[in-house]
Design goal:
Blueprint lengths: L4 E4 L1 H9 L2 H13 L9 E2 L6 E5 L2 E8 L4 E9 L2
Parallel strand pairs: 1-5
Antiparallel strand pairs: 2-3, 3-4, 4-5
Length: 80
């Protein structure tokens, strides 16, 4: 099965670099684990074309482009 390509916006990359290495690894592992079937794990954000993925104390906003086989991490933030 073809896997979607994972892309991260610059602000999400910066947020990951500021996190403790262990937290960043957990987040990236979870994001890469949804490549085959992203909609199984994502919840649609109301009024937007974005999806939400919660990973422990963190939340990601994700844009899924089906036609281009891309998953774009738009924003990554702490949910606390």
């Amino acid at each position: 099965m073809f896997q979607n390509k994972i892309l991260k916006k610059e602000n999400a990359e910066k947020f990951l670099k500021k996190l403790p290495k262990k937290d960043a690894e957990i987040i990236l592992k979870k994001i890469y684990s949804i490549r085959d079937n992203p909609f199984r794990f994502l919840k649609r954000l109301q009024g937007e074309k974005l999806w939400r993925l919660r990973i422990g104390d963190y939340r990601t906003e994700i844009n899924v482009l089906i036609s281009n086989n891309k998953i774009i991490v738009v924003r990554l933030e702490s949910s606390q």
